[in-house]
Amino acid sequence: MTRTLFTEIQDFLSFGDDDRRLLLAMAPIIERHGADITAAFYAVLGRNPTTRALIEGRVDRLKATHQRWMSSLVSGDYGDAWSDSQIRIGNVHVMLGISPLHVELTFSLLRDNLLAAVRQEVADGATCLASQRALVKVLDMSLALVNHAYAEERLNRLSGFTGFSRKLIENCINKTARAA
Amino acid sequence: MSRSANITKLIKNLASTTPDIEASAVIDNDGLMIASALAKDVDDDAVAAMSAALLGIGERIVRELRRGEFEMVMTKGDQGYVILVRCGREAVLSVLTTPSAKIGLVFLDLRRAAAEVTKLLG
Question: Which of A4, A180, B8, B16 is the most buried (most CB within 10 A)?
C-alpha cells in the first residue's frame, strides 16, 4: 500500500534519476550546514508555546534524529525503507500530539533554510536551480508521506473509537462531499 | 431470485404484515444499501451510511458501558421510531415505525425478520 502510494508520489512529481544524483551530490552541503539548520529549526520551535511544550527536555535527542533525517534526504536511496521511515515519522508525530499544521509549518522552515544553504554553496546558476528543485521534490515527497500517515492514523483512531469501518468513514466523507 | 431481491421482498412483507412498521432497509457495515423499502423521497445512500454509523456507535457504547450483548439502537422523534438491529456480523436492519407503534410487537417482528435476513445473507 505504502509502496504504491510512494510510486504515485514519485511519478506525480517526476522524481527521477537526475534528482537522485543531484540530491546525493548535496550530501556534503547538508553535512556542513546540517547542525546550523537543525539549531535554527529548534530555535523556532522553542519560541512557539505549543511546539515548545512538545520538545522541552529532549531537544538534544531530537536534534540528533533531525540531522539523521536530513541526511536521509540526500542519501540518493529512495526505496521502500525510505518511504517507510517517513510514514513512521508521521506516526510518531501523531503519537506525540503534534498537529498537522505545525508539521506543514516546520517543513516550510526547512525548505527555506535548506534552499538557502544550496544557494550559498552551489555557484553555477543552472546546477543550483536544478539542485533546489530536487530538494523541494524530496521534501514534498517526505511531507506527502508524513501527511498520509497522519490522515491514516487519525481515521484509524476515529474508526477504533466509533466502531465505524474505514469504508464507512470514507463513505460518510464522500456523502458529505457530494452534498456540499 | 437474487439475494437482494429476496431480502427486498422480505422487508416489504414486514411493512405490509406489521402495520406499525412504515418502511425498512438492510444495510451493510460499510453503510452501503443491500435492500430498501424506504419512501421514494428518502436519500437511500445517506440513510444507509447513517444507519451503519449509528449501529457502530450503539455497539461501541454498549460494550464501553458493559451492558452485555448488543441488541438494538432505538431513536424516537414525534413522528415515530427508527430502530436498528443486527443481521449477523455484516449487516443491519433499519425500520421506521408510526409514533403510536406497539413497540413490543414491533420488536418481535423485527427480531424474526432480522433472523431471516441473516439466513438469506448466508
Answer: B8
Q: Kindly report the pTM of this predicted structure.
A: 0.76
Inter-chain Cβ pairs, chain A and chain B, closer than 8 A: 38
- In contact, A80 and A101? CB cutoff 8 Å: no
* Residues ≥6 apart with Cβ < 8 Å to B85: B71, B72, B92, B93, B110, B111, B114
Q: Does A155 touch chain B (CB under 8 A)?
A: no
Best of A158, A171, A173, A174 to disrupt the B interface (most B CBs within 10 Å) is A171
% of chain A at pLDDT higher than 90 = 71
Could you report the per-residue pLDDT of A92-117, keeping only the tens digit for each? 888 888 888 999 999 999 999 999 99
ipTM: 0.76
> What strands lie across the sheet with B21-28, from one edge to the other?
B33-37, B21-28, B91-97, B80-87, B72-77
Query: What pairing do the DSSP bridges indicate for beta strands B80-87 and B91-97?
Result: antiparallel
The confidence score (pLDDT) of residue A14 equals 96
pLDDT at residue number A59: 93
Alpha-carbon separation of residue A72 from A23, A38, A149, A167, B30 (angstroms): 10, 14, 18, 35, 40
